[in-house]
Predict the structure of Gamma-glutamyl-gamma-aminobutyrate hydrolase family protein.
Amino acid sequence: MKRDHKSKIGPPVVGVMTDRRSVDDVAEDCVRVRYLEALSQSAGVAPLLLPTDCTDEYVAAYMARLDGLLLTGAASNVDPRLYGGSSAPPETLDPHRDRTVMAAIKAAISVGLPVLGICRGLQELNVALGGTLCPEISNGPHRLVHTENLSLARDDQYRPVHKIQAEGNGVIAQCLRACAVDGHVLVNSLHGQGIGQLADTLAVDAYSTDGVIEAVSLPAAAGFVAAVQWHPEWFHNEDGVSSSIFRRFGAACRSYQQGKMIAS
């Protein structure tokens, strides 16, 4: 008798990158709940928190068992020394996360795992694939202010503040064009850093009006590998672009999960 795999498969499991923080002088690996809500409610996947400071062997074991990987945003910056830059103040960095996430990105791509990066996650993807970052993306003539206004209430900090325009035909560009008005989409902006030199293997999916790269994808990837500089998780349940991105990511994770079931 044939076994019915479909009825027992359950939702795809997506690994979620955490941050290392110190709370009352005790190390904790943490993530904002809003990311988990966006994954479960809009993407229809089961989030699973990944610890920081993992060995490459443990990272490979995680990637072999997951159906997707979410690279979350964070208050910390990627260590500039990872892309040939100068050292930065320790309080701005998270070396524990860096150690895990750089290995996780490479391992995930090598097995064809769907990957979605958000804010720091976009920057991590670019650095892991050989690109660099600009430490102060708002500086310079004709640049927009990309950092948030901390005097506002939290929800207001995450409201759309500037236009972006789709580029190419990557998965994020497709989501943007489906929701564009007069060729543009409004997104929020809460980042000090951004992409400097784009990694050779990445393609631009969107620019802001001042030329800052706002979204990227990996054309050579076996499946969904893309990242955005803004925060779609915050209003995932009411913003068309945000919900579209998570739905597409969830569909890619389900497709990957089903492919593994067939292969087994």
Notes: The longest strand covers residues 203-208.
